[in-house]
């Protein structure tokens, strides 16, 4: 069930590529925004949807992994299909609710420094502080707590501190956890500078803002949105199944006829597999006992 949140995170990363990024490229080519205020508001809204959707989905993934590894006996009840769908809907409802106040505050504006319509940090001091705390610090605190508890359990498993426990951890579970942990760390690193700049500016705009170099703000902004491109790379580097699929997709693009060969081969192997016993490998079922 945890894979549903991974798919949801991927959708959040793709949102910016569908609408805002083409408009940003247009603004760069024209050296200014030429699409009008309506497109500016829509672009800013979708950017916020992508950003907040990403952090909320990362938080949901961390909670899911925490329950799966640290409370495995209750996991199936907590994350059955119905509950998981409810959690997913709640994640996106909270995301939309978190963005709507921007329209009332008027904080979605075009910023010529970054050629995009985005959240303006200087519109409202109190609102900017709220955004940084609710949309960044609180979720990252929850994620940090979940992953620290998981790390503690993994260390206990490694050193067999809790031999009396009947809980088991599979090697695949640990690999999946490490993948999502890297996703979290890179998100914090990429988004941290922009959020801390916003927090510093909101606390004392008149004194802090003039001392922040434009290049630093631009660098922190594009580093933040570059994070949306990193998750696919992380999955490819750390997950064997993703690596195989990436390789198959690239080979198919290079030689489309391979697609038809794979399809026919898959159908043949599917028929053969019905007459042969299932074969499992030790790697897929490797377990670490506590």
UniProtKB/TrEMBL annotation:
Keyword Hydrolase attributed: no
Ranges that cross the membrane: 41-63, 84-105, 125-155, 176-203, 215-238
Membrane disposition: Multi-pass membrane protein
Keyword tags: Cell membrane, Disulfide bond, G-protein coupled receptor, Membrane, Receptor, Transducer, Transmembrane, Transmembrane helix
Pfam family, one: 7tm_1
Keyword Cell membrane assigned: yes
Residue span(s) of domain G-protein coupled receptors family 1 profile: 1-235
Main location: membrane
GO (cellular component) term, any one: plasma membrane
Molecular function terms from GO: melatonin binding; melatonin receptor activity
UniProt-annotated location(s): Cell membrane
A single GO BP: negative regulation of glycolytic process
Function: High affinity receptor for melatonin. The activity of this receptor is mediated by pertussis toxin sensitive G proteins that inhibits adenylate cyclase activity.
Family note: Belongs to the G-protein coupled receptor 1 family.
PANTHER family reported in the protein's UniProt record: B2 BRADYKININ RECEPTOR/ANGIOTENSIN II RECEPTOR (PTHR24228), MELATONIN-RELATED RECEPTOR (PTHR24228:SF56)
Name used for this protein in its record: G-protein coupled receptors family 1 profile domain-containing protein
Biological classification of the source: Eukaryota, Metazoa, Chordata, Craniata, Vertebrata
